[in-house]
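Lay summary

Proteins are chains of building blocks that fold into shapes. Our project writes down both the chain and a compact code for its shape. Here are two examples, one after the other.
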Amino acid sequence: MIPFLFRAFHIFRAFVVKKRRKAGSENQKYQFQIKNVLNMQIATTHKNTDFDALASTVAATVLYPGTIPVLPRTLNPNIKAFLSIHKDIFNIYTSDEIDMNEVERLIVVDVNRWDRLDGMDALKQKKGVEVILWDHHLLKGDIQANRICHEEMGANITLMVRQLRKQKTPLTPMQATLFLIGLYEDTGNLRFPSTKSEDAYAAAFLLERNADLSILNSFLRQPYGEKQKDVLFEMLKNATKVAINGYVVGFNRVDIDGHVGNLSVVVQMYKEINNLDAAFGIFTNKDQSRCMVIGRSSVESLNIATIMRSLGGGGHPGAGSAMLKSANPDAVEKMITELIEGNQQASVQISDLMSFPVMSVTSGTKMKEVAMMLREKGCTGLPVVDEGKLVGMISRRDFRKVRKESALNAPVKAFMSTDVMTIAPGKSPMQAARLMVKYDIGRLPVVENGNIIGIITRSDAMTYFYDLLPG
């Protein structure tokens, strides 16, 4: 009975849409709402919907038969182009076409915050609504769901494809194509650092299900026209680089006259041309009433999503954006700078990786005693500390200076290195690695307020970057 009702409503909706188009402006105020559907369930996603969000919404209708796909009113331009051709295939609705009083189940995909949904406030307050959440973003939001699939992945659709494979659910070539477009867009054709091996497996599975790469290439080829060229030229004219917490970052503020699409492409090109770790485009319109911030990063430890979330937006570790109202561009740049200087709330800091307490020796310790300590502990060097202050570093390499056996009775201060490079506990692993490479050193004492509180070694940094931690 239920499948019949949904087929009937889809047929009726098509009839109403056709009548509305014929009626013209006189009937534009008329709104058709789906009502009286037993146990109505809808699937929705975030504003400024991208392909991963659209694909995940459609996937929800496959995983949960009878689900109505509901999209926000604000869609990315390439989504609008795609739906202008394929809208009838996927039977897409908007929130004002749904009677929220009848909704019993809400499936949220590719987002975990209520404020990023469109027209769902009534369901946030409504009691008894079952909420199912599918999200691949690392940061948790405020949507309290009854059932959750929350796992870091390159694309959200990968999580849903996993379940479709498990259930052996058949897919049409058009569904497989849409899912692959979403997967490729969010992983940069499997090139973004956030891409996981399972994303590649999911892509192979969808290709086996006859996903059409020619359609994919048509819609993922983002337009780059005269307006975008003008903006990029303006950004390159005023290009600046700043060093923040070990990262090379570029900020650029541009006044935009009218609508310019695909600014994210411009920011990405700006970052690549200037060889930046991260780039931020701050775009304002003439009356300064709106400010769009777009960020791109090629460094995993500099999380764009965390920064944009602090500005009220969102995104992924390598890409994100935020829309601000009446924001001062100077204040926006300062805020982003402070977030990077603080290494962001969710990023790993040196204090998370360092070893402590620190084994050290005094400058008066005999070299033969140091040799025994290095051999017993299996380490390659030790900080030299007098009265709580770091005065030098002694390493196995320094023993090359020992020419005679009698010199082993000499104190450490005769052979230690006094020009010691240190690092603060709030700095990033990337900065530690850069210092080690630049100065060819195997360890960095971690110093705070003049006192040594830990030590980070080359192996600690490599363990972090290559994820070699046990378990």
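And here is the second example, written the same way.
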Amino acid sequence: MKNLKLKIARIEKDLSQEKLGDLVGVTRQTIGMIESGNYNPTLKLCISICKVLNKTLNDIFWEESE
């Protein structure tokens, strides 16, 4: 499932995938794969991303059940 919440939060902070990757210690490709739903990040990486974006884990990574 695509992570549009991550993409929107990243764009709101005016960060490219590459810049966000640099800030959390991963590659641009990793951020792109998380956004496209092709990579399941570790909890440590999720927390790092949330800190940089000033969001909670629920804001970015919680999936609403339908």
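What can we say about the second shape? DSSP finds five helices and no strands in the chain.
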